[in-house]
Amino acid sequence: MTADSPAHELAAHLRSVAGETLRDDTDWTIAETADGCEVVLPDECIRIDRYHSPNESVRWELTLRADGDIVGKSGPYESIETVGRQLQTLLTSEVRYTVCCDG
Question: Which CATH class is domain 6-92?
């Protein structure tokens, strides 16, 4: 990924959002991927990937994983700022996902 690529710009913005949002005692990392990045927390991973739209514009999709399973998806988002706001919402929400069973 090049320094001026949309994914590199996304990762830099999300590092800033996570750094401002998370408490100092929260362990987290952001790893760049081929099409976006992952925000890795102790009990979950939020993956942000480039969404391949028909008109080739840059859009982003968030996937929330817990214990290796997909528990939520959202998007596509048109701007890095919108992705940052959604990430901030996920990071500050007390309940990030629910688990349902049949009994």
Answer: alpha beta
